[in-house]
Amino acid sequence: MYFVYFLRSESNPRKIYAGYTNSLDRRVGEHNHPDNTGWTKQFQPWRIEAYVLADTEETAEIVEAYFKNSAGKEKFENFIQDNPHHPNPKQGFFDALV
Asked: Prior bond to 45 cis, omega within 30?
C-alpha cells in the first residue's frame, strides 16, 4: 500500500509539495528533519494537507506525477476554495476524483 500525499509548508503556506511513499509518518519526518538537503528543506516545517491510498507503486507514481505539475496543484487548491462547506475539503478532493 502506498500513500500519495500533499504537504503544505507552515513557514510559507503558498508552498505545496506532492509525493508518494509506503510510510507516511516516516516520509513527513524526513521532509522535516534538520539534515534534509532536498527542496523541501527551505520551507520547513511541513504538515500533511491530504493523502490518498494507492494499491501499487506504479499507480502512486502516476498520481504523484500529475499532482507535481502546476495543473494538478491548481486543481487541488481550487477544490478547497470551491468547497468551503465540505466537512474535510482537503481529503474530499481525493474522494471527488474516484
From this structure: yes
